[in-house]
Amino acid sequence: MDSILLVEDEYALRMTLGDRLRKEGYLVDCAVDGEEGLDKATQLPFDLIILDIMLPRRDGLEVCSGIRRSGVITPILMLTARGRTPDKVAGLKTGADDYVTKPFKMPELLARIEALLRRAPARVPATPAVYEFGRIRVDLRGTEVLRDGQGISLSAREFQLLRFFLEHQQTTLSREDLLTRVWGYDASTFTRTVDVHVASLRQKLEDDSRQPRHFVTVQGLGYKFRP
User: Fold this and answer.
1) Is 92 exposed, middle or buried (0-12, 13-18, 19+ CB in 10 A)?
2) Which of 7, 43, 196, 217 is positioned for an S-S bond with 31, CB 3.0–4.6 A?
3) Phi, psi of 144 (to 5 degrees)
4) Would the pLDDT of 103 be above 90?
5) Which domains does the chain have, with CATH numbers?
6) Which backbone phi and psi does 27 adopt, to 5 degrees?
7) Ordered alpha helix ranges (H), the chain
8) What is the sign of the dihedral through the CA atoms of 92, 97, 98 and 99?
């Protein structure tokens, strides 16, 4: 399951594009400005970065250049509302692999994404492909979850949340962090979505969901996964 970092400050486009990419089967993380985009792109593993040029705090060209200076070779697809050739050339010169001019047609964008992912060298996983805790075995590549060898059915969102917990073990994660990085929602959105999904994971993966050992609540802060 390929992962994509979407760096876009326009809320409506970020939500629409993020939802569509998830429906296409991609794992999507979002950043709302250039500073956050650069931090995530250089600290977390992704298969593709979609980067808007017009961003607050750092513009996309600066972010792209910073990503390449850090040694990250992840393919970068730039989005720009500018139709001028010099902007496109500048993006390619700073290290972008392709660009799409806004407004764009979704089929075109998806085709560009697929082409970049096909051309990209295989990324060496920064985290294990298989995790085990308690009686549970999770195969991230095979998107398979087993309890004592028997398959457990998770929704796509439950699996994405589980993967995020596994990749951030022993880290206290606020509901806002999880909403932003797993759902792609604006952190200011008030929702009990996170609580409902954590409760579902406990029900399916804990020996006793009322006294969870792995998906624990950090009072007043959020949740933490303990193997």
Assistant:
1) middle
2) 7
3) -125, 135
4) no
5) 3-119 (3.40.50.2300), 130-225 (1.10.10.10)
6) -85, 130
7) 11-23, 34-43, 60-69, 85-93, 106-119, 156-167, 175-178, 193-205
8) negative
Cα–Cα distance for residue pair 51/20, rounded to 1 Å: 16
**Unique residue bearing structure tokens 């407004």:** 103
DSSP state string for 139-169: ETTTTEEEETTEE----HHHHHHHHHHHHTT
| Spatial separation of the C-alpha atoms in residues 212 and 147, rounded to whole Å | 16
> What are the tokens at 102?
């806004």
Pairing of strands 130-133, 136-139: antiparallel
Sign of the C-alpha dihedral computed for residues 152, 154, 159 and 162 taken in this order? negative
Task: Work out the pLDDT band at 118, boundaries 50, 70, 90.
Answer: confident
Residue for token digits 């022993």? 170
Q: pLDDT by residue (tens digit) across 23-46?
A: 998 989 999 999 999 999 988 888
Instruction: Write down how long the chain is.
Output: 227
Q: How far is CA 202 from CA 126, 181, 187, in A?
A: 26, 20, 23
- Of 68-72, 121-125, 161-165, 193-197, give the lowest mean pLDDT range: 121-125
Half-sphere exposure of 58 (CA within 13 A, CB side): 17
Q: List the structure tokens of 144.
A: 């398979």
Contact 227, 133 (CB under 8 A): yes
Element (H, E) at 64: helix 60-69
Cβ distance 159 to 3 under 8 Å?
A: no
pTM: 0.56
